[in-house]
Amino acid sequence: MGIAELRKRLGLSQEELCRRLGISRPALSAIERGKEQPRVGLAIRLAGELGVGVEELFGAGALSEALGESTLGVYGEVGNQLILRELPNGYLGGSWLPPNASVGPRGSVERMGEPAVLVDGCDPILGFLSAHLGSRLGRSFYWWSMPNSASLDNLAAGRTHLALVHLPEGEVPQLPEGWPAAVPLAAWELCIAAKPGNPAGVHTVADLFSPAVRFAARVEGSGVRRLSDDWAAEHGARLDPGGFASHLEAASAVRFGEFDATLTMRGTAAALDLECTPVGVQRSWLAYTKASESDSRVADALDEIESRRMSRLLGVMPNYLGVA
User: Fold this and answer.
1) Domain ranges of the chain
2) Which architecture, in CATH terms, is 187-283?
3) 86 touches 93 (CB < 8 A)
4) pLDDT digits (tens, 9 = 90+) for 172-219
5) 10 Å Cβ neighbour count for 31?
6) Neighbours of 123 (CB within 10 A)
7) What angle, 0 to 180 degrees and rounded to 10, lies between the N-to-C axes of helices 296-305 and 308-315?
8) CA–CA dist 78, 182 (Å, integer)
9) May I ask the CATH architecture of the domain 1-68?
10) From CA 296, how far away is CA 281, in angstroms rounded?
């Protein structure tokens, strides 16, 4: 049975499955049509969402061929569930740690060292946070960059320990019943980022949605995309499906001329030497479940995040506005 048929049998739209996987709709369409072969990590997540094995989905030997002799990855344990992931696709230099698992061609997992604490979200400060927690607590923390909705889906499904969510200033996370309150993390400026010299003349939110402006939108399910869709509707516009998976990808598309402007973090715009026009403040929280909280490693991490030491560190981070 094909991917599209399995998806429809489960009552999932392409948009919903893309949101859960943190990929664009064109990317999923290409996979469903057999035009693209997903990387191992995405193949495993896709099979999990559809409730089948990887080899059932992509054919006998598919996992073995994709993995070759062996691939390095990261494993964590959430509750009693083993979570295996490919190497992180988003991290800052200081956050990197050696992988702690090796996956053989038949999908067997060789665990090396203790399981990692997994942290999901789109804010690059999670790279710094993972490195700091690893140093302070002597544990392995790994960050994966993904949209807010995918992070929270992973948390709800027991596939991660901590998930970031960010919202405009004045809003607070509306978490599912039974979840503990999220821990405040940091605040940062959201800005319109344009190429040096701003050749397209994008200075206001209204300018972003002019037919003459190529706007690099974030992927559906991200906090910035939700805000972008609301602003587009206010200005009589509608964004195309799909988008960029991270702040850095969207800003890079502007920096190298594929698009005229995007909405992103001031820090990301500054790193790529883009012109930045502030349009608001976003505040970030780290959400966790009772299952995560019962893990002593996560409980220790939450204590450190709420400490005065962390408050001082976040208060001096470049391009951040202090704690949320």
Assistant:
1) 1-68, 187-283
2) 3-Layer(aba) Sandwich (3.40)
3) no
4) 888 877 777 788 888 899 999 999 999 999 999 999 999 999 999 998
5) 21
6) 28
7) 60
8) 18
9) Orthogonal Bundle (1.10)
10) 33
